[in-house]
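Hi all, long-time lurker, first post. I run a small reading group and we've been trying to get comfortable going from sequence to structure in the token notation. Rather than ask abstract questions, I figured I'd post a concrete chain and ask someone more experienced to write out its structure so we can walk through it together at our next meeting. Sequence below, copied exactly:
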Amino acid sequence: MKHTSQFSIALLLLSTAGLPLAVNSAGAQAYTLTSLANFTGGNGEYPLAGLVLSGNTLYGTTYGGAAGNGATVFSVPVGGGAITTLATFNGSNGAAPGGSLILSNGTLYGTTCDGGAGGDGTVFSIPVGGGAVTTLASFNGSNGAYPGASLILSGGALYGTAFKGGGNGDGTVFCVPVGGGAVSTLATFNGSNGANPECSLVLSGGILYGMTEYGGAAGDGTVFSIPVGGGAVTTLATFNGSNGANPNAGLVLSGGTLYGTTYGDGTHNYGTVFSIPVSGGAVTTLATFNGSNGANPECNLVLYGDALYGTALGGGAYSEGTVFRVPVAGGAVTTLASFNGNNGAYPACGLILSGSTFYGTTNDGGGYSFGNVFALTPAAPAAGSMYVLWNHAGQASLWKIPATGPVTSASFGSYSAWAPSALSSDTSGNAYILWTSTAGQVSVWKISSSLGVTTSQSFGPFAGWSAKSLAVGPDGNVHLLWNGPSNAASIYNIVLGGSMTSKAYGPFSGWQATQISVDSNNNTRVLWTNSAAYEASLWNITSAGVLTSQTLGPYNGWQAQSLAVGSDNLARIVWVYTSTKQASIFTVASDGSITSKAFGPYTGWSPAGLAVNNDVDSDLMWTSTSNQLSIFDIASAGSFTSTSYGPYSGWNAIAIAQGP
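-- Answer (accepted) --
Happy to help. Here is the structure in token form:
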């Protein structure tokens, strides 16, 4: 779609009698760090490994402590409380556990870096309720030494890495039968193909993926793969300092991409978050640590929504470590919490996620300076307000509805041959109204949180094209969606009052782009619908222009109507059953999984729009045949409250958006 020179259309602000009057109404997530339990020495000390959750209980290991100064396996209630020692190590049954436990069929499995029959570490198991440590295998150097990473379980075998030993002394990849037995060496490292793996493995499609801390072309470590049955080590990527160095955490696999951290180097020599294609290739640095935002991450990442979460061993406000967040597409490191000694210090392990709460351990600090178990819980944000746009024969009324207190409103128009058609908002509380004319022109208005117009800009007309939807990104740019001939689409990226770029897509036979949204990472989401086939397609276009899509349906009789994305970056799509006007809200996670909740039908009412408020509740707008409005505030569990307005003769509520 070509664009021509822009020109201004003066749309005067006029007050008009008969408007629906204001009536009384019946950004990044903040987190709270809580210490759940402290290690005292007697119940263990200095945990180096992460946790595993089963039911309402967290399980983990400590590197030292307890009777005879031996390491422990422990449990603690998920809500906090006393630490229970489930087992202790005494050297002969292992010593110094370093990797996180895994749980299968009532049994906990793990590794120790020392002890056992050969003195070079063990693979062990204990019942989840506690009891004697069972040594499943011992390392003796020739079959590996010092296994310090977590295990993975697949097909009756436990797989892991040993930091040292093997034929070249540079470490191994091994497997052990889940019931115990000989250690099978699947691969050995020789320096050139990597050296000293200290990271857990990930298994996908019969291939094991992992990292070495040293070795490779530059000596700073590698990303590797081997067949699950054993064989040659394939080097997928090497670290060279500038792209990170010395990884000692495991990888995360999502789609066709591996994500991980390096302990050192990068721009500031404090480590990086990176990605590489699962097939291998160049290392992409997603974020770097600079000390103030954390330093030296050495733990596995967690993928949640559209972001990666993890811990940094040092740095932060008190130089004792952080919990951080990085967009999966790359960007700034956000510090979610800093450790200060009292709430723990030096987290040497990764996080686990249950619901929306992260759990982990620190290696130091806490009440006795022996480390602790902590929880990181999202703080409940204020609900904020909403904007609602009304239309009456070319007149507009914009409502600002707070969580509590009176509604305020402003009116605009009427303007001959013009009508308000769409609404959006930005993170600063400004609203944006899209006006469209019968001649094919459009005007975008920016309206402050005090409901005064601050900027306007006009576009068109463009023969055969019509503007359908607008959204505003965190950078403040307006994204304007156009439909064109033969179901083509064009997206304008507009700096109001300044520059503009555009990108065209299609045409795609039978499909039409109907709505647009922009997430907190500045990725553009576009909803396409195929009404004849009862299908929809959800597009994600990154700020770099990379496009991925997911097809939804067919769902006979249902049409995808509305799209909204919240601060959690999850897309919500409203589907409407055409015959009864029942609504179903699909929430689409970053991995493509879908949860849905249905509402209605309600006689005489139709779903008419969707927004996601600051508390990530879905606000579903309903309108009636008698010009009434009802807004459902829907929590993630599906419960909702509703508030109704009207009727207002001749006025129709046409759009809803998040407010400040």
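A couple of things your group might point at:
Residues 1-27 have pLDDT under 50 and may be disordered.
The two ends are 34 Å apart (CA to CA).
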